[in-house]
Amino acid sequence: MDKIKHQAGLCVYPIFTSAILTPIVTNSRRIPWLIVASFATLYLVWGSTYLAVKYAVESFPPFLMCAARFIAAGSILYTFGLFQRWPRPTFTQWKYALLMGMLFMGSMSSVAWAEQYVDSSLAALIITSEPGLIVLLLWIFKRQPPSLQGLVGLVLGVAGMLVLVGPSLESLGESRSSAIIIIFLAALAWSVGSVYPAHNKLPSLPTQSIAMQMLISGVVLLGFSGITENWTTFSVSAVESVAWISWGFLVLFGSVLAFSAFNYLLRVESPDKVVTFAYVNPVIAVLLGWLFRGETLTMVTGMAALLLLTGVFLISTRRTLITFPTKWRRLAKKSA
Question: The pTM is what?
Answer without folding.
Answer: 0.81
